[in-house]
Amino acid sequence: MRTGFGYDSHRLVSGRKLVIGGVDIPFEKGLSGHSDADVLCHAIIDAILGALGAGDIGRHFPDSDPAWKDAVSIDLLKQTVALADRSGYTVSWIDTTVIAERPKLAGYIDLMRSALAHSGVAAELISIKAKTNEGMGFIGKGEGIAAYAVCLLTVNK
């Protein structure tokens, strides 16, 4: 078994759509980033890469590479899950927390789990929790959104 931890945050800006967990969420702002800036996917990617001892998302999908401009993060996650498989591991569990003051995300969690399952990890192996930051810090002020993820990899049989 191996465990990995991931974190990501992005600034909220006007003129971008908000994508979290592969789901377009109606909101007046979106997350700024080179790709679609999906904080949840990015945190999960980093957790898997961490468990593999393979660096971080910037090493595999650098924002300096135009190939990743406006990339769909579910596709990046799919590539990361495939890397784990090629390395001899199966993603056996993912536990995540998304922190956003607004919009409220509880109503989108099942949709996110279904969208994330397109990466090759079954929806029932993905836990997503949504929290606020109680008005504190950049998240509490509505300036951004963050996500944390932990994953468990087991050896392929």
Structure at a glance:
With 157 residues, the chain is of the alpha+beta class.
Whole-number count of domains: 1
Largest sheet descriptor:
5 strands, mixed
What is the second-level CATH architecture? 2-Layer Sandwich
Number of strands: 7
Distance between the termini: 12 Å
CATH C-level class: Alpha Beta
Shape: globular
Strand content: 25-35%
Question: Can you write the helix and strand succession as a string?
Answer: EEEEHHHEHEHE
* Poorly predicted runs of 5 or more residues: none
Q: Structural class, judged by helices and strands?
A: alpha+beta
Percent of residues in helices: 25-40%
Task: Give the key terms.
single chain; 60s Ribosomal Protein L30, Chain: A; five-stranded mixed sheet; 28% helix; 31% strand
Task: Explain this structure.
- By secondary structure, the chain is α+β, with helices and mostly antiparallel strands.
- Helices cover 28% and strands 31% of the residues.
- It contains five helices and seven strands.
- α1 (39-52) runs parallel beside α3.
